[in-house]
């Protein structure tokens, strides 16, 4: 649920955060359908990771493959709206922060990589501990917003890939990459 990553005995394991309610529902479903549960069943209940800072998983069609193989990556992108010549960033990808995103945008404007941006403002309410983000990027009316967004995703922290590598140690010597369904069954057997 909380996610983890680490290295042990020469292998890495990367497990992103998941929604507690969805994990509980998937576990109960697996308990009630132990011999017939499939990856597709689990994807319907637990459609992907749940990142605390928000963001949008843009490769959601790959979730079943990632759960089935125990390996892959979730592309996590900032949520945004475009209003006239402004891009409003409403939340940011997991493992990034507002300060580094704004700094990277400014750095890329100064170096000439990002062109046509006329202002960047951070209206995020820092007096609360909520995940409410409000970054406004104003651009010239001659700039195509979709092209600008692609550039922003490429050179800033507004998009990243969260690895999923479910290597586990079972017993004292057996190390292998585990499927999500197998993991849920092992957890139920353990409990």
How does this structure look, described?
The structure is a single chain. The chain has helices at residues 20-32, 39-45, 63-69, 98-110, 145-155, 180-190, and strands spanning 4-8, 11-15, 56-57, 71-77, 79-83, 86-91, 117-122, 135-139, 159-165, 167-170, 174-177. With 191 residues, the chain is an alpha+beta fold. The strands form 4 sheets. A 4-stranded antiparallel β-sheet has the order 5-6-8-7, covered by helices on one side. A 3-stranded antiparallel β-sheet has the order 3-4-9. Strands 1-2 form a two-stranded antiparallel sheet. The mean pLDDT is 89.
Quick structural gist:
This protein has helices at 20-32, 39-45, 63-69, 98-110, 145-155, 180-190, and strands at 4-8, 11-15, 56-57, 71-77, 79-83, 86-91, 117-122, 135-139, 159-165, 167-170, 174-177. Helix 1 packs across helix 6.
């Amino acid at each position: 649920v909380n996610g983890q990553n680490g290295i042990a005995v020469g292998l890495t394991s990367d497990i992103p955060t998941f929604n507690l309610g969805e994990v509980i529902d998937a576990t109960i479903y697996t308990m009630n359908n132990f011999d017939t549960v499939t990856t597709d069943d689990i994807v319907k209940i637990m459609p992907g990771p749940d990142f605390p800072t928000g963001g949008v998983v843009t490769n959601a069609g790959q979730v079943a493959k990632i759960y089935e193989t125990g390996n892959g990556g979730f592309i996590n992108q900032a949520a945004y709206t475009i209003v006239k010549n402004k891009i409003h960033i409403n939340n940011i990808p997991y493992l990034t922060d507002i300060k580094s995103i704004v700094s990277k945008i400014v750095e890329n404007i100064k170096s000439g990589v990002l062109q046509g941006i006329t202002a960047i403002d951070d209206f995020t309410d820092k007096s609360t501990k909520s995940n409410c983000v409000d970054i406004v990027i104003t651009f010239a009316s001659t700039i195509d917003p979709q092209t600008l967004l692609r550039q922003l995703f490429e050179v800033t922290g507004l998009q990243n890939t969260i690895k999923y590598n479910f290597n586990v140690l079972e017993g004292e010597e057996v190390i292998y990459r585990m499927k999500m369904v197998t993991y849920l069954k092992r957890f139920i057997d353990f409990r």
